[in-house]
């Protein structure tokens, strides 16, 4: 009754006494419009809330997937003593070529899909798009992938080992240097270099070793290969040998047309343009999700399983 009385008073105010009997019979046009407006506002708020919730859930799922992939890469490394190459044909397995002269197995491409079947991880992110996988550029070079002084040697799988002619062993320090002449000039090696010393005695993985650059604070540009920078261009990490990227909710666009300027974040263009530079915005939300391994991560994992010891 109170609701009906309120409606009657509103009707009399808006339309006058002569419409009060019509108003008593049902809702007025103004009331219907107000009700529709209210419903529209509620529906819009619900859809917006649902969209935000859905994105948050998918973002959380994808972050967990990227972490699982990183863990999967480390497990693969500990078991096989090398990291896998990218999947080029989309079958979930790494793709390699074999050199005719020395039977060296090298990566067909430096980037492609994730070898998810071999890693035992998800093939696609929460938005249903494949994960992007990029490795050290020289891993697709048969002259570098088994070279103990190349970062790409973390991908060496088979074939004879190699090292540069300037590399050598310093008897006084009991250390191997990739450029023993420089080590002598710097005073790191006080005596003569043994250039005939072989740091590896087996033609089998791991082809890299603790001496493989970069070592310690060695940040030479030639050794960095892949790097991650923040929004201001400051370097967050270098010496990266394996990078995994989910392009997020606009992943389909990133895969098909990376140069399309309708992407949500201009920084994301750096992550799909095929080069060795990646961006991670730590100050504001970013649609891309990155995970990577650097040389120190690889060495640490091998030390944990005594992977540098001869089997």
Write a structural description.
The chain has 311 residues and is of the alpha+beta class. It has one domain (1-98, 105-153, 215-311). Helices cover 34% and strands 14% of the residues. The protein is built from 9 helices and 10 strands. The protein has helices spanning 2-15, 20-25, 29-80, 116-119, 180-186, 221-224, 251-256, 269-272, 295-304; strands spanning 96-98, 105-107, 111-113, 132-135, 168-170, 175-177, 226-229, 235-246, 277-279, 289-294. This is Prepilin-type N-terminal cleavage/methylation domain-containing protein. Keywords: Membrane, Transmembrane, Transmembrane helix. It comes from Hydrogenovibrio thermophilus.
Low-pLDDT segments, ≥5 res: none
How large is the radius of gyration?
30 Å
- H/E element sequence: HHHEEEHEEEHHEEHHEEH
Termini, distance in Å? Answer: 90 Å
Count of helix runs: 9
**What count of domains describes the coordinates?**
1
Q: Give the CA-based shape.
A: elongated
**Percent of residues in helices:** 25-40%
Report the structural category.
alpha+beta
What number is the mean pLDDT?
Answer: 84
Query: Main sheet?
Result: 6 strands, mixed
Q: Work out the number of β strands.
A: 10
Quaternary structure state of the chains depicted: single chain
Please state roughly what percent of the residues sit in beta strands, choosing from under 5%, 5-15%, 15-25%, 25-35%, 35-45% or over 45%.
Answer: 5-15%
